[in-house]
From TrEMBL:
CDD domains: DHQase_II
Positions marked as site (Transition state stabilizer): 18
Superkingdom classification of source: Bacteria
Identification of the protein by name: 3-dehydroquinate dehydratase
GO molecular function: 3-dehydroquinate dehydratase activity
Role according to the record: Catalyzes a trans-dehydration via an enolate intermediate.
Active-site feature positions: 23 (proton acceptor), 100 (proton donor)
Catalytic activity: 3-dehydroquinate = 3-dehydroshikimate + H2O
Any one GO BP annotation for this protein: chorismate biosynthetic process
Pathway: Metabolic intermediate biosynthesis; chorismate biosynthesis; chorismate from D-erythrose 4-phosphate and phosphoenolpyruvate: step 3/7
UniProtKB keywords: Amino-acid biosynthesis, Aromatic amino acid biosynthesis, Lyase
Length: 141
């Protein structure tokens, strides 16, 4: 059974309340429960969320020495700005999939630059909560 770490960045704790027309009506906890129920016999997950860039970097660094088979990350707005998260991801020797609930290329121009994605094995964008499930499923298969 695969062990997958899922890291979520800033404002994702406000899902369901923040721009539901863009991000959907589900909370992050709703997405976690839904995703885990779909993959329960195939993988175990550890979910983490922080609004603080340094805490996300610390969690990625800690994952380097733990027994995770893969990482799924939704860096939120840090995707567009964080060289620190990008560099931390490059330390990992496991597959990394970056997910975005919205289709970033249909949004504001500044969202089209994904610095952190340059350190990812793959990117899922615009699939809503399915992004997490599809990312995990691809890592399992």
């Amino acid at each position: 059974m695969k062990k997958i770490l899922i890291i979520n960045g800033p404002n994702l704790n406000m899902l369901g309340k923040r721009e539901p027309e863009v991000y959907g009506k589900d909370s992050l906890d709703d997405i976690r429960v839904w995703t885990d129920s779909k993959i329960k016999s195939e993988a175990t997950t550890e979910w983490y969320q922080s609004n603080i860039e340094g805490e996300i970097v610390d969690r990625i660094q800690a994952a380097h020495s733990q027994d995770f088979d893969a990482l799924v990350i939704n860096p939120g707005a840090y995707a567009h700005t964080s060289v620190a998260i990008h560099d931390a991801l490059k330390i990992l020797k496991i597959p990394v999939i970056e997910v975005h609930l919205s289709q970033v290329y249909r949004r504001e121009e500044f969202r089209h630059t994904l610095l952190t994605a340059k350190a990812a094995s793959a990117i899922m964008s615009g699939l809503g909560k399915q992004s997490y499930y599809i990312a995990i499923k691809s890592l399992i298969d």
